[in-house]
Write a structure and sequence with these properties.
The chain has 467 residues and is α+β, with helices and mostly antiparallel strands. The protein has a domain of 317 residues: Outer membrane efflux proteins (OEP) (Up-down Bundle), CATH 1.20.1600.10. 67% of the residues lie in helices and 12% in strands. Helix 5 runs antiparallel to helix 9, helix 5 runs antiparallel to helix 11 and helix 9 runs antiparallel to helix 10.
Amino acid sequence: MKGKKIVLLLTCSLALSVSSFAQEKLNLSLSQAKNYALQHNRSLKVSELAVQKAEAAKWQAIASMLPHVDAKLGYTNFLGYSAELNLGSSNSADLSSVLTGDPAHDNIVMIAAQTVGALMGGSGGTEIAMNPYGDLSVQATMAFTGMQVVGVQLSNLAITMSKLSLNLSDLSVKANVTTAYLTVLVAEQSKKLMESSKENVQKMYETTKKMYEVGVVEQTAVDQLDVQVGLIANEVKKTERNIELAYNSLRLILGVSSKTELDLTDGITDFLTANDAYATAATPFDIDSNYTMMLLNQNVKLSQKQQALKVWEHTPTLALFAQHTDRSYFGKPEGFNMTPPNTVGATLAIPIFSSGERYSKLTQAKIDLKTAELNRDDAAYGLRIQERQLRFLLNSAIETYELQKKNVDVSTRIFDKTMQKYQLGTVSSTDLTTINNNLISAQGAYIGALLDLLTAQVNLQKLLQTM
């Protein structure tokens, strides 16, 4: 029984290990790699949070125009203190401190003093209890100004700009994934060509060694080809390291672990067929739909709203409030209570003079608007120049790629024929080595032209937003 449990545990552990290993491998086409990066890339998550923050700020701006209600609980204890109310007698001499010389005011004071004096027996004062109390106050406030309306409009602009920034981030991630993906494919293509060259030199070495054994060539020819085999083998190892570096770059962009195995299902030929460079070079450029240009247009609108905000600082602000208060003396006499249960009020604040401060702020806002417009126009000019430059580079890269592709074909045919002549003894080993070096150089130039073509195509696609 105990042995069965051990076997079961080992089986479960093996299953978990296999499952974990399966999760460490991804089979990705280029489109799948883009989608994966959009879902897992960390920089995009930051941009998405910025959009959510902008939407929350919009509600904050709207809420500033709506009523705010606050409640307050209080408790007061005078620790046994009591107040004494003493209005004195009806003698005008005793009231000299409160008489103002205004007949209407003084008559009211005299009548009140006589009434209270009569109630109190004509002299002395009365003690007023200062009992502990608790109160509950509920206050509703509301303020309105044109700046709040502009604030909501600014929040809408902020949301739009955050979404455009997110679109730019998406586009950048797609371009980075495409570049990294293609870099891997180009590095692997380079490895295949280097291995082919290694096989050629190896055949040359073996043929030359046999020819040396029969006395046809000298030892130096064998040694020279032996060195060539070692050099090419070293280049193959360098290419393998470059492939691993390219894979690591792709892993970083995808947001996967460094231990994740990536199997790229698209090949160089598939990519060139699916994304015709000539079609990309002929795609028109709509600058008005370009995310960067749209973002700059929104920035101009933002500056316009900020200028309007400074204008509204010259206008009045209306504030309203209503308050209700309930007070409890916990069963004791109320005493002297001057707090009304219900209160309403309104305030109209009118800006009059600020020593030029508000005018200075408005002037700065106007300058910021002109600056934003100039920056937008300058960026539009730069985008048009960039578009022309990228088309030129792509067309040039296409021509170079086609020439280098033909050059590899020609160099391969020349090497094959020269190899046949070498085996027949009609050409020297030096001539064959030279022809082989020319083939290796042609292959290297082809790889460089291929990488330049794909890079130019990705750059133009990013500008055209057709990725």
